[in-house]
Design brief:
The protein is an alpha/beta fold and about 250 residues long. The chain folds into two domains: about 160 residues, Alpha/beta knot; about 70 residues, no CATH class. It has nine helices and six strands; from the N terminus they run βαβαβαβαβαβαααα. It has a six-stranded parallel sheet. α1 packs parallel to α2. The longest helix has about 35 residues. The termini are far apart.
Length: about 250
């Protein structure tokens, strides 16, 4: 039996935030929820601006601890589970925007010791490229025709829900497959996709989402790895054999 999951570490990522007041409120929320790991990509203002600090209240003491970087990839380093947020989803045809609910995200997150939450710009959210970098895509759907939340408000909602599982009970018995091992599985799946003439980038995004939703154990991961590796090498051998036969036939 695996060891119990320890207290979840949360990282908050803001991509190109545009509003000083929102930033102040977010720092205040971080103080409320005892969250100190904040990474900001290309903010449109100085994090230490007086207006930011004023609206942050006691959260202003966290402003100097904020990590400011130039790309989202820098904030995602060492992320065990990364979750991008979007108000727009397309479950019919867009593989990038295959979204899950906040409730389901919290359930999945409860099985991980560290979670990175990624929030986009107040004006346009996250780009497709940025969404494609995350393990999961999450949407808070309130069933109205106006599903776009203020940035600080949606962060408050998400942090409150995650607060309930910061010290979680594990819902899957056995150790989960590491993110590195899942990458090996996905890499072989991409190779298979290339041989079959499928779009490897779509396969990568879809399989990463599916595997993260599935909470794959180490035992299950080993089987999946052998499966995709076996499929790839079988297709390669058949391709080589076919080319050899065609070459021999061409010499007659």
């Amino acid at each position: 039996m695996s060891a119990p999951v320890c207290e979840m570490r949360l990282r908050l990522v803001l991509v190109e935030p545009e509003g000083k007041i929102n930033m102040g409120f977010i720092l205040r929320l971080a103080k409320n929820f005892n969250l100190e790991d904040i990474c900001v990509v290309n903010p449109r203002f100085d994090i230490l601006d007086e207006e930011v600090l004023s609206f942050a209240a006691r959260g202003s003491e966290l402003a100097k601890e904020v990590k400011v970087v130039n790309s989202l990839s820098e904030c995602l380093k060492d992320s065990e589970l990364s979750v991008c947020t979007t108000s727009h989803y397309d479950v019919e045809s867009d593989v990038i925007r295959q979204s899950i609910s906040l409730t389901h995200m919290v359930s999945i997150a409860s099985n991980h010791s560290s979670v990175t939450l990624v929030f986009g710009r107040e004006s346009v959210g996250l780009t497709r490229s940025e969404l494609g970098m995350c393990d999961l895509i999450m949407t808070i759907d309130v069933g109205s025709d106006y599903n776009v939340f203020n940035l600080s408000h949606v962060i408050a909602i998400v942090l409150y829900e995650l607060l309930k599982v910061r010290i979680p009970q594990q819902s899957v018995y056995g150790s989960l497959t590491s993110k590195e091992y899942l990458k090996f599985i996905i890499d072989y799946a991409k190779e298979v996709a290339a041989v079959l003439g499928l779009k490897a980038s779509d396969v990568e995004v879809v399989l990463r989402h599916v595997l993260c939703k599935a909470l794959v154990t180490k035992a299950e991961g080993r089987v999946l790895y052998r499966l995709f590796k076996g499929i790839y090498h079988t297709l390669q051998r058949r391709s080589t054999t076919t080319l050899g036969s065609e070459s021999e036939g061409g010499g007659d």
